[in-house]
């Protein structure tokens, strides 16, 4: 086995996350799919760090984790704020500008 | 030169299909809570992959931060928001699902073929040399020398995120809070003084004394506002007529 298999796995997980963002309607599930995409990108970074023999990839993956944590905090606060005003966590219901 | 041992290969071929299946299940299951649990499983497998790839620190951080903090936050918000109609898997935009799946297969195929065709020009090195004095020590050395400026920027980002969450969670009252004094005035100046001393207690005393039976007023009628609104909404309210005294003897007998 060569380390490139991890890259294939990461590509698959990223694609699955992308489908989820488009297809699912619950805002929280959409958000979890975004987390899956971030994690897949992290796996790529760690794998390339190993392939190249330097730790820079791991440092960038670490920064990605911090950014993801910030993103979760703000994103979930937005979802709760929308839920409080619209009583729904569906991404289809937050379409006030359309009408 | 990097050689991958057999145990790691076995682990990869066992866990990688499992994580892909869990990620697919995340899309297909109906309940958001099940999606969250499947995502937690994907994150745990990724942590195992990190540790297998000589990224010990990131593997531990993945478990602590992602499966520990982030997923618990997700579950907390899920419980707070509750289950609603958005969990249904029906298509709201016609034709969205086939288009999305076609585009995703195209995108995934592009990524996989790119990875298959790309060459780095050298063999995989492996991290044995970079990790020679320990993974955490080597990472710390990089983080606090080359990457010290991004590290500071990230701290500013964390503070901004905390502030942003507080601003979003701030709730401005549309009407001022009703004080106890105002409530008392409203009770006495209302249209009837009937509820000024509080609502009647439920239960028809002497025949039946339960919270799901409305009280009987002095004129013999039932008082529905003596029942808790929750019981009323659930339909658990009983009819109090069956507990009324059937014939009240109104004749006054002369005492001899």
The CATH topology annotation of the largest domain in chain B reads as: Four Helix Bundle (Hemerythrin (Met), subunit A)
Please, how many helices of chain A?
3
- Neighbour order of strands in the largest sheet of chain B: 1-2
Distance between the termini of chain A: 55 Å
Question: What global shape of chain B is seen?
Answer: elongated
Beta-strand share of residues of chain A: under 5%
CATH architecture of chain A: Orthogonal Bundle
Q: Could you give a short account of the major beta sheet of chain A?
A: none
> Biggest β-sheet of chain B: count, sense, barrel?
2 strands, antiparallel
The secondary-structure element order of chain A is HHH
Instruction: Give the rounded overall mean pLDDT of chain A.
Output: 88
Helical element count of chain B? 8
Q: How many domain regions of chain B?
A: 3
Beta strand count of chain B: 2
How far apart the termini of chain B lie comes to 119 Å
CATH topology of chain A: Helix Hairpins
In which range does the helix fraction of chain A lie? over 70%
Estimated radius of gyration of chain B: 34 Å
Describe the structure.
The complex is a heterodimer of chains A (99) and B (256). Helices cover 78% and strands 0% of the residues of chain A. Chain A has 99 residues and is mainly alpha-helical. Chain A has a single domain, classed as Helix Hairpins, CATH 1.10.287.3510. The termini of chain A are far apart. Chain B folds into three domains: 1-84 and 101-132, NADH-ubiquinone/plastoquinone oxidoreductase chain 6, subunit NuoJ (Four Helix Bundle (Hemerythrin (Met), subunit A), Up-down Bundle); 133-169; 199-244, no CATH class. Chain B has a two-stranded antiparallel ribbon. In chain B, strand 1 (215-216) and strand 2 form a beta hairpin. Chain B is elongated, with a radius of gyration of 34 Å. At the A-B interface, helix 1, helix 2 and helix 3 of A face helix 1, helix 2, helix 3, helix 4 and helix 5 of B. Chain B: Belongs to the complex I subunit 6 family.
């Amino acid at each position: 086995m060569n380390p490139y298999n991890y890259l294939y796995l990461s590509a698959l997980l990223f694609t699955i996350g992308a489908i989820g963002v488009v297809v699912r309607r619950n805002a929280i599930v959409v958000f979890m799919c975004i987390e899956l995409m971030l994690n897949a990108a992290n796996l790529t970074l760690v794998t390339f760090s190993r392939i190249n023999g330097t730790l820079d990839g791991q440092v960038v993956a670490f920064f990605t984790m911090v950014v993801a944590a910030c993103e979760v905090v703000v994103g979930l606060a937005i979802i709760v704020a929308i839920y409080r005003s619209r009583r729904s966590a569906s991404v289809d219901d937050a379409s006030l500008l359309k009408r | 030169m990097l050689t991958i041992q057999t145990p790691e290969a076995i682990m990869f071929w066992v866990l990688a299909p499992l994580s892909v299946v869990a990620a697919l299940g995340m899309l297909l299951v109906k309940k958001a809570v099940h999606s969250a649990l499947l995502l937690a499983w994907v994150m745990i497998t990724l942590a195992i992959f990190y540790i297998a790839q000589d990224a010990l620190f990131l593997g531990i951080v993945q478990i602590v931060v992602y499966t520990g903090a982030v997923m618990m936050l997700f579950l907390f918000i899920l419980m707070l928001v509750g289950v609603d109609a958005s969990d249904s898997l029906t298509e709201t935009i016609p034709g969205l699902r086939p288009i999305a799946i076609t585009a995703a297969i195209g995108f995934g195929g592009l990524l996989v073929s790119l990875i298959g065709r790309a060459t780095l020009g050298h063999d995989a090195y492996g991290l044995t040399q970079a990790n020679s004095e320990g993974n955490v020590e080597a990472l710390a050395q990089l983080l606090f020398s080359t990457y010290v400026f991004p590290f500071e920027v990230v701290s500013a980002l964390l503070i901004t995120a905390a502030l942003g969450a507080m601003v979003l969670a701030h709730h401005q009252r549309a009407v001022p809070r009703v004080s106890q004094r105002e409530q008392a005035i409203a009770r006495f100046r209302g249209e009837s003084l009937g509820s000024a001393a509080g609502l009647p207690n439920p239960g028809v005393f002497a025949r039946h004394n339960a919270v799901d039976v409305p009280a009987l007023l002095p004129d013999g009628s039932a008082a529905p506002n003596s029942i808790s609104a929750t019981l009323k909404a659930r339909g658990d309210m009983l009819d109090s007529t069956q507990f009324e005294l059937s014939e009240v003897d109104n004749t006054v007998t002369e005492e001899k």
